[in-house]
Design a protein that fits this description.
The complex is a heterotrimer of chains A (about 750), B (about 180) and C (about 325).
Chain A lengths: L3 H5 L11 H9 L4 H14 L1 E6 L8 E6 L5 E6 L12 H4 L2 H5 L8 E6 L2 E6 L2 H18 L5 E5 L2 H13 L4 E2 L1 H18 L16 E5 L9 H12 L3 E5 L5 H4 L3 E3 L6 H14 L5 H7 E2 L1 H8 L4 H8 L3 H14 L3 E3 L11 H14 L32 H4 L11 H6 L13 E5 L3 H4 L3 H10 L2 E6 L11 E4 L11 E3 L5 E3 L14 H11 L11 H11 L4 H7 L1 E3 L24 E2 L3 H5 L19 E6 L13 H6 L4 E4 L1 H7 L6 E6 L9 E5 L7 E5 L27 E2 L6 E2 L4 E5 L10
Parallel strand pairs in A: 6-7, 6-13, 8-9, 8-12, 9-10, 11-19, 13-14, 14-15, 20-24, 21-23
Antiparallel strand pairs in A: 1-2, 2-3, 4-5, 4-15, 16-17, 17-18, 20-27, 22-23, 22-27, 25-26
Chain B lengths: L2 E6 L8 H9 L10 E9 L2 E9 L8 H4 L6 E4 L3 E4 L9 H5 L6 E2 L5 E2 L5 H4 L6 H5 L5 E5 L6 H8 L2 E2 L11 E4 L1
Parallel strand pairs in B: 1-10
Antiparallel strand pairs in B: 1-8, 2-3, 4-5, 6-7, 9-10
Chain C lengths: L2 E6 L15 H25 L7 H25 L18 H22 L1 H4 L8 H12 L1 H24 L12 H20 L3 H30 L3 H12 L3 H24 L7 H24 L5
The chains are: A alpha/beta (about 750), B alpha+beta (about 180), C mainly alpha (about 325).
Bound molecules: ligand MGD (2 copies), iron/sulfur cluster (5 copies) and molybdenum atom.
Keywords (chain B): 4Fe-4S, Iron, Iron-sulfur, Metal-binding
Protein name (chain B): 4Fe-4S dicluster domain-containing protein
GO molecular function, one term (chain B): metal ion binding
């Protein structure tokens, strides 16, 4: 009993002693069940520990999955060495156990058939499903050309299928993470700094003195290191300025919350530029050395006074000046955060440009506490024959949007709708790891397109809404049950992480790489898949990188020294930006030459008519889009979304917290399900707010079905960004219905 | 030794990671929890104050749950941690009635369960699961008897409160405000 | 506007949105415990005063009810435990600070005693039945001799039992409705009153009925006084206590509390008993039954409403 004393005195760093008496008390009762639990927990150390990186969102935190012999994932813990998570996962990553455990998962391949005139799915063997898919691939190639088979993908399975599609001859590929997400900011920052922002964002939040969040709701948006570093910034007494019409969690942590009128951010930013220039607060040396177009900018913002912006944004001129000075005071350790989901009002690239220009004026790009120069290490390509050259691809489909740098999902879908002047007809579609009916707005377009397509195959882990449109559904195993590509992301320091299966695939599910290989082999593309197991690919790649799978299984994450040079601009040294001029382009000649505004201008956007409210949406920290709604652990935390309504509105309509309501938008689209009201001061009186990703319509999702409203359903007015094709989704207005509009109709 | 948890409400974002982490670490069945998150909103748009808090058993110095337990299943161990021994618990519910924080629940297997301050992890020199995952690092854990511990220092240098002090339980979970 | 909500993690069965840990068996248990306490006290008192001949009901007939009430009460308690297989753990320790613990011990002593008491009257209650075995007969004789001793033991035990039924609740600081010093005496008075009512119900002599009506009336007056005292006290208390009281005075339990407990359960039977004492012809069963029902509902109301009251949220 006394011997145990030593064992317990370990947390010395924390100033903790032992719990020796406690433990001896336990030992007095031989069959104490608390002891049993402790014993059980001790086995926790004997749980199998497998290296992985999280797939619950795209931050890709490296983690350890602990599994037991009964085939359960017990817990998932962040990898301490990982610069994406510093050993701490976010709630969704911790709740990743539920991705594996969810008993509603897709279990076998499914093939659409007709029984008694009713379309339904029947279970099929992998061979049958894969043979059918291969036949379709061949048919499409023969009849229309491989290019007519499109791939919409997101996340890890995407890369395996991208390889398949390129080998097959199609680069008709797109993902919602561009035109529904980051596209505008990548275009805007690229135009200005000659560099994408990319993921993870190279924002040096932990060392910043001033963090400006414009509609970026970190804290609800749980992108891990951003959240962690924002907390560090709070510890460091950094000034936080949040611009958000809603009182976001981040706003509640801020020194300044600017409760902006929605859709007016560009006006605020122009006024900030005005103040910085007029009050001589901008970084003159930096601008002189690295930027071009300052004079044009100066002239441009001359009249955009805080007083002018006040009329538009409803933010008091004094608050605008004060915050501008606060930023300048902190400069260059200041970050005007580029945001991430930025497809809002259609002029989003211009808004991103305004953010980029502000960063330039403050001299924060390439400075400590601003934006660091990220670096990643490239993973050698596993040898395979050259890809054939498609006759046309995603660039041709998006040709109307000159600065689109990735496929535009909505444009790809448009090409599926037959018309005379459709030069790039899409005839078949594979969907992998994206729930397009929830992530892509404009349901009418999607349904028209899916109706017209000859063939749709969906690779997913769950019976999500999108699977309902498929001809063939393939069950992928979860990220905890498979190998995937090596993670190599840009960061302060290059690093890689591996994903190793913690357990065998459950049910009859298979990894994405296997599916790609199986289809490829059936198409005679076996040369592109010259391995039996993806493990071999990783092994080969790792050995080329000076490590091994064996080592990586033990450490999970490996860091490499920087090679590209210092993290920040070096005083006195020249720096070439990858823009046409080699400088930061405040004034964009490129935009000018393409017929766009070379400097951002404020455009007025429609406002909700009488009786309507602007539909605002965002993230819940406990969920990722639609993918986690049915996750048993995360659903337990939050099982449905709520409609945030200002008390004034609640009074007018007579709404109470907890009451169920329906929504109807400006295009007379009515929500399928109802949503429970939350009356709260955190939202403006002209808007309502809900978390994206709920309102699932597939009954097979036993926990998520019918819970809350699907915001995407209400987004039928899409403001396309003319520069890069982003789908602005924040210009939709809804009425609140207190009576069930479906009372007399069957759903 | 006096264990205490200190939670910085100025940093907590209410993400609930501490809740899931506790569930997976401690096999808390789905539908139950040992810790939870509350949100308090005060004011009128746009002058609003929001407080997010992670709550759990306060491991009270003056623990009514221990006093009222007829079997001794609820007991205090060294460091002031309040624990329940499942096999001594008859499920009478007295302790649940006695806790002003509703920090205890009836485990589906019948006994009463609650936060243990991850006693089993402390023994191995690890922090409680919730503390170890919190992405904002807003939770601190340590010994209040040691004036040099992080928790002691935080309580010395920052403003703090405990929950329902009027209930007289002398809680050991502190909230920095 | 002020808003307070659970962001996550709270939807625990029987705990959220409000406690429902103790169900009807607990109310029944408290009621039967109080009833038994009343019966035992009266049996003990009558015995010690040597008035068994004049007042046979409390010592003889009504005392049959006692062991039944105690046994059913215990059953009800165990029925409401969620880990009942471990009930024996109650008797591995004595925990003075836990009313539940000393309640369990008091019951452990009182229940057998109440059986023995009835056994000591076996031949008198069931004159036609003979005890088959000699040792039983001897045992009965032995008990009979020791009745006074038993009575001396029963008086404190029954008072503890009666008080315990109230203190069990009032010891909970966390439930503002329960947490007041009056609940113990109030439950004791109410228990005695139900005991008296039972005796009235079973009694065959006018003398007995008269005496116990008088006792009962006094208890009713005491109870009403205690209730007023409790309400005033709570009103002078903190916000949580005010809220708690409002559940009874102007909330969902008002009808039950005023209608069934105070008016039908106390005032009406009180008036009827007063009339009876004054010599009017009242069928005595009516106030007695009203008192019993009122006493049961009283415990339901307090147990249910008390669980709704809390400090936080
Ligand atoms: N209305 C509205 N639309 C939006 C947004 C919004 O906020 N509101 N946000 C936009 C943004 S920023 C983005 S990035 C996109 C995201 O869009 P998506 O990536 O489409 O997001 P999810 O809805 O999570 O859909 C992911 C799908 O992948 C499946 N899945 C999960 N893990 C795996 C796996 O390992 N393998 C396979 N094969 N499938 C898997 C899930 O079951 C789910 O069907 O949505 C965009 N669309
Ligand atoms: N928990 C969780 N975290 C996630 C994700 C997730 O699904 N779940 N998804 C990840 C992904 S892929 C992305 S892209 C990011 C998205 O995360 P962000 O880029 O932070 O999100 P947005 O949806 O652009 O921003 C939502 C905020 O914008 C505010 N807003 C609405 N209209 C306006 C306006 O006109 N002006 C201003 N200034 N603000 C406005 C809303 O009130 C809300 O607070 O989140 C990432 N992190
Ligand atoms: S941020 Fe969270 S969900 Fe995203 S990868 Fe990291 S742990 Fe997973
Ligand atoms: S994990 Fe940390 S930040 Fe998240 S809710 Fe819990 S205490 Fe707050
Ligand atoms: S919080 Fe409740 S359960 Fe925990 S020690 Fe205090 S009274 Fe007991
Ligand atoms: S429920 Fe268990 S732990 Fe709680 S008081 Fe009863 S016996 Fe003790
Ligand atoms: S200390 Fe352990 S048991 Fe308590 S809430 Fe945290 S994780 Fe759960
Ligand atoms: Mo995104």
């Amino acid at each position: 009993m006394v011997t145990s004393r030593r064992k317990f005195i370990k947390i010395s760093a924390l100033g903790l002693g032992g719990i020796a008496t406690a433990s001896s008390a336990f030992q007095m009762f031989g069959t104490n069940s608390y002891l049993d639990t402790i014993a059980k927990q001790d086995i926790a150390n004997k749980f199998k520990r497998s290296a992985t990186y999280c797939e619950v969102c795209f931050w890709k935190c490296a983690a350890w999955a602990f599994s037991d012999e009964e085939g359960k994932i017990k817990k998932i813990i962040g990898n301490d060495e990982d610069p994406h998570c510093y050993g701490r996962l976010c709630p969704r990553g911790t709740g990743g156990v539920g991705m594996y455990a969810d008993e509603d998962r897709l279990k076998t391949p499914l093939i659409r058939t007709t029984v008694d005139g009713e379309e339904t799915f029947r279970e099929a063997s992998w061979d049958e499903a894969l043979d059918l898919i291969a036949t379709k691939f061949k048919h499409i190639k023969d009849a229309y050309g491989a290019e007519s088979f499109a791939l919409l993908k997101h996340g890890s399975p995407g890369s395996h299928l991208e390889h398949l599609f390129k080998a097959y001859g199609s680069e008709t590929i797109a993902e919602p993470a561009y035109a529904q997400c980051r596209g505008p900011r990548e275009a805007g920052f690229n135009l200005t700094f000659g560099s994408w922002v990319g993921s993870p964002e190279p924002t040096d939040i932990r060392d910043t003195k001033c963090l400006v969040l414009i509609g970026s709701h970190i804290g609800e948006n749980m992108h891990n290191t951003q959240v962690q570093e924002m907390s560090d910034a709070i510890d460091n007494n950094a000034t936080i300025i949040t611009v958000d019409p809603r009182f976001s969690t981040a706003a509640s942590k801020s020194n300044h919350w600017l409760a902006i009128k929605p859709a007016t951010d560009i006006a605020l930013m122009l006024a900030w530029m005005h103040v910085l220039i007029e009050e001589d607060l901008y970084d003159k040396e930096y601008i002189a050395k690295y930027a071009t177009g300052f004079n044009e900018l100066k002239d441009h913002v001359l009249n955009f006074t805080p007083e002018w912006a006040y009329g538009i944004t409803t933010i008091k001129p004094e608050a605008i000046r004060k915050t501008a000075r606060a930023m300048a005071h902190a400069a260059p350790s200041v970050i005007i955060h580029p945001g991430r989901h930025v497809t809002w009002y259609g002029d989003d690239t211009q808004r991103a440009r305004a953010m980029a220009i502000l960063n330039a004026l403050l001299g924060s790009w390439g400075r400590r506490g601003g934006f660091y120069f990220k670096e990643k290490i490239s993973v050698p390509k596993f040898p395979h024959p050259k890809y054939p050259q498609p006759k046309w691809d995603w660039t041709d489909i998006g040709e109307q949007y000159p600065l689109a740098e990735m496929g535009i999902t909505t444009e790809v879908m448009k090409r599926a709708i037959p018309s005379k002047d459709n030069k790039y007809p899409v005839k078949a579609l594979m969907v992998a790891g994206t729930n397009i009916t929830k992530s892509i707005p404009n349901k009418k377009l999607l349904e028209q397109a899916m109706d017209a397509l000859d063939f749709i195959v969906v690779l997913d882990t769950m019976p999500m809404d999108v699977t309902g449109y498929a001809d063939v559904v393939l069950p992928e195993c979860t990220y905890l049950e498979r190998y995937d590509g090596i993670r190599s992301s840009p960061n302060r320091e290059p690093s890689i992480a591996v994903r190793v299966p913690a357990l065998k695939p459950k049910y009859d599910s298979k990894p994405g790489w296997w599916v790609a290989k199986q289809i490829g082999e059936r198409l005679g593309l076996g040369d592109y898949f010259n391995y039996n197991d993806f493990e071999e690919v990783i092994e080969w790649q790792l050995s080329k990188m000076g490590t091994s799978l064996e080592e990586m299984k033990k450490i999970g994450v490996k860091k490499f020294p920087r090679k590209s040079g210092p993290l920040y601009l070096v005083e006195g040294e020249k720096h070439e930006f990858s823009t046409p001029s080699g400088k930061i382009e405040l004034y964009s000649k490129e935009l000018k030459s393409l017929g766009f505004d070379p400097l951002p201008v404020f455009t007025k956007h429609p406002e909700p008519p009488q009786g309507f409210y602007r539909l605002n949406y965002g993230r819940s920290p406990m969920h990722t889009f639609s993918r986690t709604a049915n996750n048993p652990n995360l659903n337990d935390l939050k099982s449905e979304n709520n409609l945030w309504v200002n008390p004034k509105v609640a009074r007018i309509i007579g709404l109470k917290t907890g009451q169920s309501v329906w929504l109807r938008n400006q295009d007379k689209i009515t929500s399928t399900f109802s949503i429970k009201v939350r009356v709260t001061e955190r939202i403006r009186w002209d808007s309502v707010y809900m978390v994206h990703g709920f309102g699932h319509n597939n009954k097979k999702l036993t926990r998520a079905f019918g819970k809350g409203i699907n915001d995407t359903e209400m987004i039928s007015n899409v403001a396309i960004d003319p520069i890069m094709g982003g789908t602005g989704m924040r210009g939709n207005f809804v009425e609140i219905l207190t009576e069930d509009p479906h009372k007399n109709t069957e759903i | 030794m006096r264990y205490a948890m200190v939670i910085d409400t100025l940093k907590c974002v209410g993400c609930s990671d501490c809740v899931v982490a506790c569930q997976t670490e401690n096999d808390v069945p789905i539908g139950y929890c040992r810790d939870w998150i509350t949100e308090t909103v005060d004011g009128t748009y746009p002058n609003i104050v929001l407080e997010l808090k992670s709550e759990r058993c306060n491991h009270c110095d003056n623990a009514p749950c221990v006093r009222c337990c007829p079997t001794g299943a609820s007991h205090i161990v060294d460091g002031g941690i309040v624990l329940v021994t499942p096999n001594e618990c008859i499920g009478c519910g007295a302790c649940i009635q006695s806790c002003p924080y509703d920090a205890r629940y009836q485990h589906p297997e019948g006994y009463v369960d609650k936060c243990t301050f991850c006693h089993h992890r402390l023994e191995k020199g690890q922090l409680p699961a919730c503390v170890s995952v919190c992405p904002t690092k807003c939770m601190y854990f340590g010994d209040l008897d040691n004036p040099n511990s992080e928790v002691s220092k935080l309580l010395k240098n920052r403003k703090w409160k405990t929950l329902a002090p009027e209930a007289g339980t002398k809680p050991n979970v502190y909230y920095l405000i | 506007m002020q808003e307070e909500l659970f962001t996550s993690g709270r939807n625990i069965p029987h705990i959220d949105p409000s406690l429902e840990i103790w169900h009807w068996p607990i109310s029944v248990y408290l009621f039967l415990g109080g009833l038994a306490a009343g019966l035992l006290l009266f049996a003990g008192l009558v015995t010690i005063l040597g008035k068994e001949k004049e007042y046979p009901t409390p010592v003889k007939y009504a005392s049959i009810i006692t062991p039944i009430a105690l046994s059913l009460g215990l059953l009800a308690l165990v029925y409401d435990l969620t880990h009942p297989l471990y009930t024996w753990q109650l008797y591995t320790t004595i925990r003075l600070e836990s009313p539940m613990s000393w309640g369990a011990w008091v019951l452990l002593v009182t229940t057998p005693l109440s059986y023995l008491w009835v056994f000591s009257y076996f031949s008198e209650i069931f004159p036609k039945r003979n005890l088959k075995f000699n040792f039983l007969k001897n045992f009965e004789k032995f008990l009979k001799k020791n009745r006074k001793n038993m009575a001396y033991a029963l008086i404190p035990l029954s008072i503890i039992l009666g008080v315990y039924t109230g203190v069990l609740l009032s010891a909970f600081n966390a439930r503002p409705l329960w947490n007041n010093a009056i609940l113990g005496p109030l439950f004791l008075a109410s228990g005695l009153s139900t005991g008296a009512a039972t005796i009235i119900l079973l009694s065959k002599t006018a003398k007995e009925k008269y005496l116990f009506s008088k006792i009962d009336l006094a208890l009713i007056i005491i109870e009403l006084g205690l209730i007023v005292h409790m309400i005033m006290g709570m009103y002078a208390g903190s916000q949580v206590q005010l809220d708690a009281m409002n559940l009874l005075i102007g909330g969902e339990f008002t009808l039950m509390f005023f209608g069934f407990v105070i008016i039908l359960g106390l005032i009406v039977p009180g008036i009827l008993e007063l009339l009876e004492i004054k010599g009017y012809k009242v069928p005595v069963a009516i106030p007695a039954i009203l008192i019993l029902i009122g006493g049961l509902i009283f415990r339901f109301v307090i147990v249910e409403a008390g669980q709704l009251t809390r400090y936080l949220y």
